[in-house]
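This section describes the prediction task in plain terms. A model, or a person checking by hand, is given the sequence of a single protein chain and must write out its three-dimensional structure as a string of tokens. No templates, partner chains or ligands are provided. The sample shown here is typical of the held-out split.
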Amino acid sequence: MLDRLPFKRIVAIDFEFEFGGHDSTAAASRSGERPRPVCMVAKDLRSGETWRLWRDQFGAHSPFPVDRGTLVVAYYASAELGCFKALNWPQPVFTLDLFTEFRARFIGKCSPVHYFWGAPDLAVTRFSGRRAPEHPGGVPNLPDRVTREAYSHEVSSCGFWPGGGPVPTAAFYSYAYPEPKGFSAAKIAPSAAFYSRDLGEFILPYDVVRQAANPDDALLAFLQTTYEAAANLAGWDRAALERSP
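The expected answer:
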């Protein structure tokens, strides 16, 4: 997809950051505190040039140009741009958020790309518009009444999980509620994706995306094929709910 875009540089970027003086990102958010970048990894998807910086290596400017010749690609663009602001770096002229790109293909009811505090994870959820059976509850860190309201209608949900429990490392995920028959056996791209029976979700390890020749295509393929499996097996009215990519 990105190969067709008229940019001299297409840079995928990922910051790790922290907040000082607070035990949680929630508290920092309420206080209006800026993130404190710890390190950054960025790669030019055209040339292959890679930048790895720790906090003591951050300079007065981004290590790559952020002018009109550059498209910055991120999985959570608002967080990455917040790090640019915290470092007093000029903001990129053009930014592509891949979860937002995926969300834009759906014209039915859809959540915003949001940070979900219960897990916590970054998520976006599509709705079929049909009622779902009552959720059994039991989701960690989430009251049953909230879970049942959230899953009152059929969903296909995906996002990014920093890791923990059955999936110890960072990963992208996708699931459906209620899960249609045959969903766990669906053919999903890329081939490294797998279905976790412990979680009831498809998982794509973050390292697989990071190391892919085309990380954006790898992630978008995962999001699209897992959604298609859920929608097709559950009989969603896709013609009414989607537009062409």
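For orientation: Residues 104-241 form one domain.
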